[in-house]
Design brief:
It is a single chain. The protein is α+β, with helices and mostly antiparallel strands. It is built from nine helices and eight strands. The chain has three domains: about 45 residues; about 80 residues, Homing endonucleases (Endonuclease I-creI, Roll); about 90 residues, Homing endonucleases (Endonuclease I-creI, Roll). It has a four-stranded antiparallel beta sheet. Strands 5-6-8-7 form a four-stranded antiparallel beta sheet. Strand 3 and strand 4 form a beta hairpin.
């Protein structure tokens, strides 16, 4: 019988499906046996490491404004995990997030087509709490889905931007318009009113000329985005520059 720790160590660098297939082929373990070890290890880790530091919470919150997500809660104990995908060019960025969220993080692994990389944490009750704060539910506690059948994000009621959150948000889902000396923060996951809240908090951080604008998508649908005008561009870059996590994102800081 293979030692449980060997299964756990392999799972740290692979998906659950890959782990199940590997131990079925090489050690004749059933998928149910492998899954039992994985779930037991997750519960143990969730019990021991269920507290994020303030710094880690800011990274998660900034990521939730951008490309990050929290898995749908499906367990009775109400756990979730943080997940994020990026292209091969930004793997170093995912590696950085993986390091910052230790000991809750698992290693990055490529998707099935090797066209992108995924980073995820273990599942914990604290991520479950955050999942409830960041996704819209109706009065019955059921998810409110968009036209694509996906859960809808929301800005939590008690939410305050910090410079680190702004930086992570920008590095995740922002871009610079060099010709016009301005930058854009993509906020199509949120409502216009929520974007106005974010703009108000950006102004409190010194980014005076931030505005919510409607952006027409290719399908003709209008969605809100936040534009930082040229008069506040330098101030905005000054906020995010000290938080640059890796050189692969330096192109977002043209000055």
């Amino acid at each position: 019988m293979v030692d449980d720790q060997k299964v756990v160590q392999f799972y740290q660098n692979h998906s659950r499906q890959e782990t199940e297939c590997y131990f079925k082929a090489n050690y004749n373990l059933s998928r149910a046996q492998v899954r039992k070890v994985i779930v037991g290890n997750k519960c143990r880790l969730a019990k021991n490491y269920n507290t994020l530091t303030t710094y880690q919470k800011e990274i998660v919150s900034g990521s939730m404004l951008g490309d990050g997500s929290l898995r749908r809660i499906t367990t009775k104990i109400g756990t979730s995990r943080f997940v994020e995908f990026h292209s091969n060019k930004q793997k170093d960025y995912l590696d950085w997030k993986c390091q910052q969220l230790c000991p809750l993080s698992k290693s990055c692994f490529p998707n099935k087509t090797n066209s992108a990389w995924c980073f995820e944490t273990i599942s914990t009750p604290e991520f479950g709490v955050l999942e409830r704060e960041w996704y819209v539910r109706n009065n019955n506690g059921e998810y409110v889905l968009n036209s694509f059948g996906k859960r809808m994000k929301r800005i939590p009621d008690k939410f305050t931007l910090t410079p680190l959150m702004v930086a992570i948000w920008y590095f995740d889902d922002g871009y610079v318009d060099v010709d016009r000396n301005r930058c854009v923060l993509c906020t199509n996951s949120f409502t216009y009113k929520e974007c106005e809240r974010l703009v108000g908090q950006l102004r409190e951080l010194g980014v005076a000329n931030a505005r919510v604008k409607w952006h027409k998508q290719a399908q003709g649908k209008k969605e809100p985005i936040i534009k930082i005008s040229s008069s506040s561009f330098c101030k905005f870059i000054d906020i995010v520059r000290p938080c640059l996590p890796c050189s692969c994102l330096a192109y977002k800081l043209p000055m």
